[in-house]
């Protein structure tokens, strides 16, 4: 449960309390982490010392469900000269270390990130006659914060979030999010580390797909050029009825398509509903088989395998570096890429990832023939994987959300892969690598063209390349949701 109340700080007082009494006890009443963030808010809004605030009634560190202690809501007059409309500006408190006493975040010093290293912001266009900010963005921010706390994965500018629902639970087309640096708020140095501010930007499904196929930063730059779609400060308008590509078709044809062709995609992997079968193994060879079959119990990834797949996903985000699949014993490097604040947990780690098979006993096997299985949503990303990643000398990983299965497509330009041109299909436990030559990728793109028109799709759908001993099936979700199917 959350409550809305006016106030620029905790109930005990805040920077805007204006009271000189009790100043000696100020530090204990107003924690330094909070003080640093409020100071930046006061810099922007000196005339709003006590904004409306959504507060978690039962704090997270007392067992409550909401990780954010507070979400402050300010009225921003915009900037007519820059064609920035009036809007509501939301700022979260709780992803960073507010207290410095280990009640939520481990204190790691002043030089690194405070807590997760960032707070969320959101800018919502103010409707005519609206006298108070809507509170639904606060719950949206709590939802993102719950994901961060539960997964211990951080966000960074350019990331996208597939939400698949109108952000305000209306009929709006704004159903997904991109993340970028807040245009006004500057990083804050607190006694517990540095805090940056990441702004949530609401986008349409078509814009999310473009960000996946190209990159988030490119789409954010396009949104900045279209005033009704965000403008320079990337303000979300939940009433926006057109995508930027409907407003200006040239953006898709000239900017996005050219960007994909030139840059490729920086999406190096997704969590997905997927599976694979080793067709070169006889079905009765249960003891040694590493095939991942619906209805059977797969062998689980060891911690080191999980670590390598995680690195596969993250290293692919470095667009300008030579793609490398790190060795199995690579040192752990947290964070979604090397420019991000450290993540405190592997994005692919799960409670079941503990090694139930000693890592040294799992040998890498060359396979003669494989069958790949995807649900429709995952299958629709195969052309992106081929065109946006492999044709640019990169790799792309599908990590199962229902088990420890992983499928990594690699190009001949990727170093460190255990799949080779001589043996293009190789497995290490339940992790499959598939090496595809450029010539074969071009052919697959032609054969898989109908994946770009999901509305005309009928399931199940099968594609086969007998001479390559490769089969791909697009199956209903129920196949993956029901292991006994």
UniProtKB/TrEMBL annotation:
SUPFAM superfamilies according to UniProt: Suppressor of Fused, N-terminal domain
Q: What is its main location?
A: cytoplasm
- Single GO BP term: negative regulation of transcription by RNA polymerase II
Q: What Gene Ontology terms describe where this protein resides (cellular component)?
A: cilium; cytosol; nucleus
Q: Where is the Suppressor of fused-like domain?
A: 64-240
Asked if the keyword Chloroplast belongs to this entry, the reply reads: no
Identify the keywords attached in UniProt to this record, alphabetized: Acetylation, Cytoplasm, Developmental protein, Isopeptide bond, Nucleus, Phosphoprotein, Ubl conjugation
Q: Where in the cell is it found?
A: Cytoplasm; Nucleus
| Suppressor of fused C-terminal domain mapped to chain residues | 254-474
Question: Which Pfam families does the annotation name?
Answer: SUFU, SUFU_C
Region: Disordered; residue ranges are 1-25, 320-351
Renumbered to this chain, the Basic and acidic residues biased-composition regions fall at 337-348
Concerning InterPro entries, the annotation shows: SUFU-like_domain, SUFU_C, SUFU_C_sf, SUFU_N, Suppressor_of_fused, Suppressor_of_fused_euk
Gly residues: which segments have biased composition?
14-23
* Record family assignment: Belongs to the SUFU family.
Its recorded name reads Suppressor of fused homolog
**Species name:** Eolophus roseicapilla
């Amino acid at each position: 449960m959350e409550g809305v109340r006016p106030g620029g700080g905790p109930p005990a007082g805040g920077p805007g309390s204006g009271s000189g009494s009790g100043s000696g006890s100020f530090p204990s009443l107003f924690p330094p982490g909070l003080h640093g963030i409020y100071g930046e808010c006061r810099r922007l809004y000196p005339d709003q010392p006590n904004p409306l605030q959504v507060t978690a009634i039962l704090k997270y560190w007392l067992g409550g469900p909401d990780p954010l202690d507070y979400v402050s809501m300010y009225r921003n007059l915009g900037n007519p000269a820059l064609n920035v409309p009036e809007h509501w500006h939301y700022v979260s408190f709780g992803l960073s270390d507010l207290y410095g006493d280990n009640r939520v975040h481990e204190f790691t010093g002043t030089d690194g990130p405070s807590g997760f290293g960032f707070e969320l912001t959101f800018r919502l266009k103010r409707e005519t006659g609206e006298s108070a900010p809507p509170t639904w963005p606060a719950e949206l921010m709590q939802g993102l914060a719950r994901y961060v706390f539960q997964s211990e994965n951080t966000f960074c500018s350019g990331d996208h979030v597939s939400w698949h629902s109108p952000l305000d639970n209306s009929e709006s087309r704004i159903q997904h999010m991109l993340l970028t640096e807040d245009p006004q708020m500057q990083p804050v140095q607190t006694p517990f580390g540095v805090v940056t501010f990441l702004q949530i930007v609401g986008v349409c499904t078509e814009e999310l797909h473009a960000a996946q196929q190209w990159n988030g930063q490119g789409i954010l730059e396009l949104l900045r050029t279209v005033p009704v779609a965000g403008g320079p400060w990337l303000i979300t308008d939940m009433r926006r009825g057109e995508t930027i590509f409907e407003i200006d078709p040239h953006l898709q044809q000239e900017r996005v398509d050219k960007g994909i062709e030139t840059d490729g995609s920086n999406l190096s992997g997704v969590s997905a509903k997927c599976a694979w079968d080793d067709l070169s193994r006889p079905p009765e060879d249960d003891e040694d088989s590493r095939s991942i079959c619906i209805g059977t119990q797969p062998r689980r990834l060891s911690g080191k395998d999980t670590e390598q797949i995680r690195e596969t996903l993250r290293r692919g985000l470095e667009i300008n570096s030579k793609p490398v699949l790190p060795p199995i014993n690579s040192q752990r490097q947290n964070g979604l890429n090397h420019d991000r604040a450290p993540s405190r947990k592997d994005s692919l780690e799960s409670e079941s990832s503990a090694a139930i098979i000693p890592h040294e006993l799992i040998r890498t096997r060359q396979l003669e023939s494989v069958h790949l299985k995807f649900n429709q949503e995952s299958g629709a990303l195969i052309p992106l994987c081929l065109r946006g990643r492999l044709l640019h000398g990169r790799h792309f990983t599908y990590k199962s959300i229902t088990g420890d299965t992983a499928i990594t497509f690699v190009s001949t330009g990727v170093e460190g892969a255990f799949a080779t041109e001589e043996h293009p299909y190789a497995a290490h436990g339940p992790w499959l690598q598939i090496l595809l030559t450029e010539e074969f990728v071009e052919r697959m793109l032609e054969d898989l063209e109908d994946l770009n028109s999901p509305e005309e799709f009928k399931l199940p759908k099968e594609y086969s390349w007998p001479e390559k001993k490769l089969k791909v099936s697009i199956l209903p979700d129920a196949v993956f949701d029901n292991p006994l199917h």
